Amino acid sequence: GNAGLAAAYAAKMIGVPCTVVLPSTTPADVHERLRGFGAEVVVHGNVWDEADAHARQIVEKNTGGYVHPFDQPSTWRGHATIVEELSRQMPRAPDAIVTC
Question: CA–CA separation, 68 vs 65, rounded Å?
Answer without folding.
Answer: 10
